[in-house]
Specification:
Layout: H1 2-21, E1 28-35, E2 60-66, E3 69-71, E4 74-76, H2 80-89, E5 101-103, E6 119-122, E7 125-131, H3 132-135, E8 166-172, E9 179-180, E10 188-191, E11 198-200, E12 213-219, H4 222-228, E13 232-235, E14 242-249, E15 254-261, E16 267-276, E17 279-286, E18 293-301, E19 304-313
Antiparallel strand pairs: 1-7, 1-12, 2-5, 2-8, 3-4, 6-7, 8-9, 8-10, 10-11, 13-14, 14-17, 15-16, 15-18, 18-19
């Protein structure tokens, strides 16, 4: 009897382990909170600083991500170690090649278009949250040379390699007449994004940290992805007879695969769709052969898990 119980427990634990591995997304949640009262340079504190809060109704985060080395103006993502070295070497006060993937339209004239807008929390505090891999590969990424970038910005094609190593930050009001930078009025940088992320100032990774920003960066949960990513919709959920998976392809030529797992991690649908052009698509799945319960749906683009979501099937 003890052996049988141990066997049952072992099977149960293994099932949990399989299920726990299935929804892993490989995506990174990031929340940046700026307290303008803690900013130090009056001319670069969005009108606040020195214990005084900024009072703008809208503040934008102008963010740039470094993911790969650039050799002879070409992206070279082949070596992870060289990518990391390059992204750290490019932490400079201005015209930095960290700004490879830029979100926030701020060229000759700053745009009040809600791209990169932060949530206003009150008392001079603003925040923004996103999934890094989605945010910097979206259609919101600028494709023009901006005043803060030494290289043309482009959406990050995650399937072609690279990782989020360093990030540049500059803040502004709606029309760009008031800006937020570090205590020396230089660009702010986040380093060691996937390790022990720190916000530095003075373009010096070994120097003092920037006190006005707090970070929350961690492996994204399914719930966070569902909340912050809007390129995939599954409806209706719960479902009785059928459901649709509606998804958006950003990069033409992406290979699409949809998998559905049951509650113990067994693969019950493996639908390889193939290459698709940029645009919106919808696939319908029927539930007559699916028992009542919770299922996990994965959308993979070029073997990268782009979206993971639970769906409830009930035939009552």
């Amino acid at each position: 009897m003890k052996k049988i119980n141990l066997l049952v427990i072992s099977i149960f634990i293994c099932s949990i382990m399989v299920y726990a591995q299935i929804p892993w997304t490989g995506r990174t949640y990031c929340k940046i909170t700026l307290d303008t009262k803690l900013m130090e340079a009056p001319e670069c504190s969005l009108g606040g600083g020195g214990s005084y809060p900024a009072t703008w109704a809208k503040v934008y985060a102008h963010l740039g991500l470094c993911t790969c080395a650039i050799n002879a103006e070409q992206r070279d993502c082949s070596s992870a170690s060289q990518n990391e070295i390059f992204c750290y070497s490019q932490i400079t006060p201005f015209q930095s090649q960290v700004w490879q993937h830029v979100v926030g339209n701020w060229g000759e004239v700053a745009q009040d278009d809600n791209v990169g807008i932060m949530q206003t929390l009150g008392n001079g505090v603003y925040s923004i949250e996103f999934i890094i891999e989605d945010y910097f590969s979206s259609e919101d990424v600028s494709t023009e040379m901006g005043e803060t970038s030494a290289v043309p910005s482009m959406p990050w094609a995650v399937n072609l390699g690279g990782m989020p190593y360093t990030m540049g930050l500059v803040f502004r009001n709606s029309d760009g007449t008031s800006t937020g930078r570090d205590g020396l009025c230089k660009d702010i940088f986040i380093v060691d994004i996937l390790g022990n992320p720190q916000v530095i100032q003075g373009s010096n990774p070994e120097g003092p940290l920037f006190p006005a920003i707090t970070l929350d960066i961690h492996d994204a949960s399914i719930e966070e992805i569902m909340t912050l990513s809007d390129n995939t919709f599954i409806y209706p959920n719960p479902s009785t007879e059928q459901f649709d998976i509606k998804y958006k392809i950003v990069n033409t030529g992406s290979e699409v695969r949809i998998r559905i797992f049951d509650a113990v991690g067994r693969l019950i649908v493996d639908d390889f769709i193939g290459k698709q052009s940029a645009g919106w698509y919808s696939n319908t799945y029927y539930t007559e052969n699916m028992e009542d319960g919770i299922y996990m749906i994965q959308l993979a683009l070029d073997n990268y898990i782009s979206h993971t979501e639970r769906i409830i099937i009930t035939h009552n």
